[in-house]
Design brief:
Helices cover 41% and strands 24% of the residues. It has helices spanning 11-22, 34-43, 60-70, 85-93, 106-120, 153-164, 172-179, 189-203; strands at residues 2-7, 26-31, 48-51, 54-55, 58-59, 76-80, 98-101, 127-130, 133-136, 141-144, 147-148, 169-171, 209-212, 216-219. The strands form four sheets. The chain has a five-stranded parallel sheet with strand order 2-1-3-6-7, with helices on both faces. The protein starts with a strand and ends with a strand.
Length: 223
């Protein structure tokens, strides 16, 4: 099943598109505001985003730009009533991969989604995210709320391992084994403590990176 976010404030249109695509093996999450879409994207990266232009809390092109800053390969299709050539050009300039003007045929939209996914591949596994923290695994880059941050190799490997196990408590022993021991760098327990502290400092002390006392650490989206 393919994850898809649909940023649309009209419940009738959103419901029709959602029902049609879910009958064709998509899992559709409808976001009626830009803020809800940002929150959803910070928690999980889908395979594709459908994006309306006129939203209650802003314009879709601002979200498109925000996505492109840290999720460069995530496919985006504008799905909007704004069909002037200037709007279409602006949509592509702001990072869209395709542009569909309302009204549209559901069959055509479905075909364009499939075509874009064939070109882009499934990027879901490329990005790991948790509460505004995003890792681009193909580029080995990291961003926090859209701002790229430089990490040391150990800090990056630590964050990657915690993100890969998001929602699970990982013991200190397991972290030491995976990050250092398997690479032949045997270090003491204090090295992990120092690395976690430096990572927290670079992330701005995020609430999603939690210490489980006497056990280890846990990455978890805030509720």
């Amino acid at each position: 099943m393919v994850d898809l976010y649909y940023v649309e404030d009209d419940p009738n249109i959103a419901g029709i598109v959602k029902e049609y695509l879910e009958q064709r093996d998509f899992r559709v999450t409808v976001c009626p505001t830009l803020s809800q879409a940002r929150q959803a994207l910070e928690e999980r990266v889908p395979a594709l985003v459908l994006l309306d232009w006129n939203m209650p809390d802003g314009r879709g092109d601002s979200l498109c730009q925000w996505i492109r800053r840290s999720r460069k390969e995530l496919p985006i299709i504008f799905l909007t009533v704004r069909g002037d050539s200037a709007d279409i050009v602006r949509g592509f300039q702001n990072g869209a991969d395709d542009y569909v003007v309302k009204p549209f045929a559901l069959e055509v939209l479905h075909s364009r989604i499939l075509a874009l996914l064939r070109r882009a591949g499934n990027v879901t596994g490329q990005y790991l995210s948790c509460d505004g923290i995003v890792i681009d695994r193909s580029r080995q880059t990291f961003s926090c709320h859209g701002d790229e941050v430089t990490l040391s190799p150990a800090e990056y490997q630590l964050l990657l391992y915690l993100m890969q196990n998001k929602g699970k408590t990982v013991t200190r022993e397991k972290i030491l084994e995976q990050i250092w021991d398997l690479n032949g760098s045997y270090v003491n327990d204090n090295t992990l403590t120092v690395t976690v502290k430096r990572l927290r400092d670079k992330l701005g002390a995020p609430e999603c990176l939690r210490t489980v006392r006497s056990v280890g650490y846990r990455m978890e989206d805030r509720i």
